[in-house]
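Objective 1.3, modelling of assemblies. Example input:
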Amino acid sequence: MRTPRMIAIALAAVLAASCARAPAGPAHVSAPEPGPAGLGEIRLATTTSTDNTGLLAVLLPPFERKFGAKVSVLAAGTGKAIDLGRNGDVDVVLAHAEELEEKFVSDGFGVNRRRVMHNDFVLIGHPDDPAGVAGAGSAPDAFAALAAKGAPFVSRGDRSGTHVKELELWKAAGCNPAGKPWYMEAGQGMEAVLAMTFEKKAYALSDRGTYLSMAGKFDLRIVCEGDGRLFNPYSVIVVNPAKYRKANYLGAMGLAAWLTSPEGQAIIGGFKKDGKVLFHPDAVPED
Amino acid sequence: MDFFLETLAGAVRLIFSADADAAAAVVVSLQVSLCSVLICAAAGFPAAYALWSARFPGRKAVLVLVHALMGTPTVAIGLFLYIVISRRGPAGGLDLLFTKKAMILGQAVLGLPIVISLAHSALSSLDPRAMETALTLGAGRVRCAVTMLVEARSGFAAALITAFGRLLGEVGVSMMLGGNIAGKTRNISTAMALETGKGEAALGLALGLILLATAVCINVLLKLLQGGGRESSRGDRG
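Predicted structure (C-alpha cells):
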C-alpha cells in the first residue's frame, strides 16, 4: 500500500504545481504572445452564425498575425452580444439586427458602425413540407400558412438577430404565435434549433450560412427564400471609449478596419461550404 | 441504431486522434477545477471546524444556509458574479470577466458550501471522546483543532472528491464567467455544450468520455490518498 500512496502524493503534487501556475499566464495559448507594438487582446462579441460556420476561424488568424493581436471570440445571440458591448465587457461587436444595433449606437455605447457583409434568411422545413408552405408567394404568406395549419415551429426565442427577424415576419403576416401549442421557443443557438427542427419535423427561420453549414447533418430543406424582407445584413460596431476607457479601442478599430478592408472582404467572399458562398462582402463588394 | 453506433465509433476515433483543441479544453478544466477545489479546501475546512467547535448564536441558521446553498443552480452563481465583475459592476475594474480567474472564483463559490457541509458532517461523526482525550492530554486549542482535522481526514477527502466532481462537470459558471473562448477559457463541459449545440454529437460524446476518464483518474488518485491514510491510522491504533 506504501507505493501507490507515494505515487498518489507525487501526482497530486504535480497537479497542484501545474495549477498553481495556471492563472499567472496563458502559457498554452497557441497564438503568439502579442508584442509591445501589437494591438493586444481584443474581445469580440459575435453572433453564433459567424463563429459556428467557421468564418472567423479563417478571417481572424491573418489579422492576429499581421497586427500582433489576439482576438477572444464570445459567440452569443445578437441581443446578448450587444448587451456585452453595452456593459463594456467586450471591445467590439459583430451583429445582425439593425434595430438593436441602431439603439446601441444612439444610446451612446457603440461607435463607428460599419456594414461588413450580408446573407439572407431562409425558412427551413421537413423535406415533405407537411404544412405545404413551399408554394407561398412571400415570406409573410408562408408564415401565415404555418399559423393557419398550426404547423410545429421552433423559434430561437433568445433575442438573437434571427429571432428579431422572425418576430418581424410574424407581425407582417398578421399572426401572434406566442403561447400557441405549436410554437416552441428553444432559447438556444441556430444549430441547436435546426437539430430540434429536424427531430420535431417542424419549421424554423435560419440564416442561410448556418443552414448551409449544417445541411449535411440533418435532412431539412428550404421552403421559402428570396423575399426582400429576408435580407440579413451584418455590421461591426466598436464600443465607445468615452463610456469605457479601459476598452481596447485601438484594437477594436483595427479589427473593424480589417473586417471592412479589401483583404478581409476578399476572405469573406471566398469563404465557401460545399462550393456555396455563405456571406457576401458589402464594404468592398466583389465586382 | 446506425446513428447511435456511428456516433459512438466516431467518438472513440476522436479520442485517439489526440485533437489539440480537446487537449486544451482538458488542461483548462483541470487547472480551473483543481485551483477551485484547493481554494474550497483552504477556506472550507477551517470554516467547517469553526461551525463544528464554536458555539455562537445563529450557528444553526448558518448550517441550514450552507446546506441549502449546496443545491444552488450554477447559472444563478454565474449570473450573480457576472453582475459583480462586469465592467459596469462594482468589481469591474479588476478585469476578471472572461478569464480563468473568473471561472476559478465562480467554481470556488459553487464548491464551498459542498466542502463546508460535508467536512462538517465528517467532524460531527467523529467519536466525541477523541476531542476529550486530546484536551485531557493537555493539548491547546490549535493542537486540538489539528488533531480533529487529522482524525476526520477521510471524510474531508470525500468532501473534496464530491466538490471536484461537481466543479469538473458544471457548465453554467464556466459559460457565463469564462465565455467559452477557444484556447483560453473553453473547458471540457463548455466545449461539449457548444459541439452538441452544433450537432457534432460524436465530438461532444468524445469530450464527455474524456471528462468521465479525467474524473475517474482524479477519484482514483484521491482514493489512494484516502485509503493510505486510513490504513496508517489503523496501524497507529494497533
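The mean pLDDT of chain A is 87.
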